[in-house]
Fold this sequence. Notes:
- The chain is mainly α.
- The chain has helices at residues 2-31, 37-49, 51-65, 71-96, 103-124, 131-150, 164-199, 203-215, 217-228, 232-258, 264-288, 293-314; strands at 99-100, 128-129, 260-261, 290-291.
- It has one domain: NCX, central ion-binding region (A middle domain of Talin 1, Up-down Bundle).
- A two-stranded antiparallel ribbon has the order 1-4. A two-stranded antiparallel ribbon has the order 2-3.
Amino acid sequence: MVIDLVFVIVGLVGLWIGSDLLIKGVKTIATGFGLSHLFVGLAFVSIGTSIPEIAVSVSGALDRLAGFETSGVVVGNSVGSALNQVCLFMGILAFLVPLYLTRKETMRHGSFLIASALLVFGLAIDGTLSFIDGWIMIAAYITYYLITLLSEKVMKDGRESLDKKLIVKNVFYGIFGLVIVLIMSDIVVRNAVHFAESLGVRQSLVGVLIVGFGTGLPEFSVAIASARQHAMAISMGNLIGSNISDLLLALGSGTVISGFVVDKVLVRFDLPVLIFFCFVVVGFLLTRQRISRLEGTIMILLFAIFTYLKLFVIG
C-alpha cells in the first residue's frame, strides 16, 4: 500500500515536470506571434497543463482494453481536477491577488465552463460514457476552441521575433515533456488503482481527491507564476480553459477508446457539486468582474466542506 502511494506521488511529480517542459515550449512560440495573454491561456497553456489529465485518460482507456478496470480513477481524475481548479486553486489565487475578467469574457467563457459540466453530467447520468459520448465531448471542445480561435485578434505590435534555434529548442522541450508525461501517466493510473484496492475504497475517491489534485497542480503552478509576472489574464484563461479541456477533451479522448463506467457517487454528488462551483465562480465574476480575497476565502471553505463530505459522509 505504501509503495503504491509512493509511486503515485512520484508519478504526479513526473507529470508536473513533463507538463512544465511541454507548456514552456508552447507558450514561448505562441506569445512570439503576438497573441493576447487571455487567448494564450485559454487556447494553448490550458491544453498544455491538461496533458496529464489527457494522458491519464488515454492510458487508463488502453489499460481498460487490456482488461484492467480503471474507470473510477480516470473519470474521477477529470472531475476531481476540475473541482480542484475551479474552486480550491482559483480560491487560493484570489486570496493572494484579486482575479479580474471582463463581463464579456465571463459571459463567453464562463457559459462554456458551465455548459461543459452540464454536458458531462447529462452524458454520465446513465452510469456509462460510451464511444458516442466521447465524440460528443470532443466535438463540443472543438466547437469551443474554434469559437475562441476565431474571436482572437493577433496583436502585430506584440509579436516577438523567434529564431530557428529557439523554435527547435522549444519543440524539443515539448516532445521531451510529452514523453515524460506519457510514461508517468501510466504509473499514476496503475498504482492509484492498486492503492484504492488496498484501502478497500472506491477508485473514484482516489481519482477525485488524490489523482485529480495532483494532475491539477500544473495549472496551479502556471497560475501562481503568471500572478508573479503580472500576467493574470494567462492565469484566468488557463484555469477556465483547463477546466473545459479536462471535462471535454481529456475525458472524451479516453472515452472514444474504451468507454468508461461512471461511479454513481460521481453522478449523484461530485458532478452536481462541480456544476454548483462553476455557477459560484461565474456569479462572482459577473457581479463585479473580479473575484475578491473574501470571495476566494469562501471558495476555499466550500472546497473544504466538499472534501469533508467526500471523505467522511459520502465516501
